[in-house]
Input
Amino acid sequence: MTSYAINTLTKLLLSFLLLQGGVQIAIAQQPSSVALNSYSFNAKQRSHFTIAGQKEAVQRGLTLLHFNTPSTYEFRTYDTYGSDEELTAALETMRNMKKNGAVFAILAHDSATKGAFKQSKALTEMGFSQLASLKGRQAYVMHNLKGEIYEQVDDVKVTLTVPITNDLNDGHIYFPKEKYEFEPSADRYIAHAGGVIDGHAYTNCKEALDRNYAKGFRLFELDIIKTSDGKMVAAHDWKMWSRFTDYSGPLPPTLEEFKKHTIYGDYTTLDMQGINDWFKAHPDAILVTDKLPDPLAFAEKFIDKNRLVMELFSEMAIEEASRNGIKPMISQTPLLKLKGDKLNYLAVNNVKYVAVSRRIIQQQKKLMLQLRDAGIKVYVYNVNFDPGKDERYVYDNELGLVYGMYADNWVFDLPEDGPLK
Output
């Protein structure tokens, strides 16, 4: 996956010097350092780097981190495992940074190569001898923060903390931020599991629907699972529901037992009757389901099939939904597994919605643009899963490339006569 960020992370020590007529603020910057953490595929941990307390998680492949000053940086992740084009682009950037005398670092995550790099000779010629011989599932860190190339490889992990020189000042930008144009509208935002209520996420409760409808949401995701007697209800999973309700009996519960309990002692659980009652009372609201493998079983029980979008997880379920006039939303795994012309498959099966993790969208940028240009609405989840990657970040950096997001919080202003503020 490809990521872009330029962050200002200056820790300030303020000393105040009283002068006649006012106060002068002198700003002194503390020495900065970077923690580089590379984890191999076998480590089953996410690689990341941290500067001045700001943590940035990275994706599969090689991440190039360029330091502009001791407190500002930019980075991009190249999926060198999945794409020869990404490897070529990474090599070109590395050549340019070396040519310009840039201060930078590289870290691998998961798997950076299949077997051996196809351009290992070029890597060796640039001075990256250990990277040139890196195996597919190894951890790797490189930096030149001390003036020379330093490399370290391990089968599981490499963790380093290195100081950043205080006199660093490099104005080159190697990863310019891309801005995508789009028109703001309420249908770009799906209230994730009903949306947050009083700081609580994943409740799937009636009060969350009420609260977030009032804020502006019109699309609402509910996780649908079955009780022990086969009745469909809204809950993320039974272990989470039992924690939320302090229920200590056998799981799954019966429908009767499910209805006896409240979330955090305050919020109302939703069975099919409760779901239908709420959407009947809110005729402009749309339900987006999660977890269900059988589209017909739910659609037959929901109050209005025309206001139903179902995220589905297999080609069989998608095709069944399409045959029966149910709006399918294809999930990430079956989408990426589609053989041949993905857009043709989606067109044939009348798929107008896609759900993917926001962590893959830069890695799959070409596909995202194809979907966008075909009029297919891509919604991203994993909002708020990575530090700093909240609803506002997705709005500022990723909407336009994708259509919308699963949002926990309504942070959007939709004036009738102007753009989002």
Observations:
- Residues 256 and 401 are 45 Å apart (CA to CA).
- Residues 186-407 form a domain with the TIM Barrel fold (CATH 3.20.20.190).
- The chain has a mean pLDDT of 90.
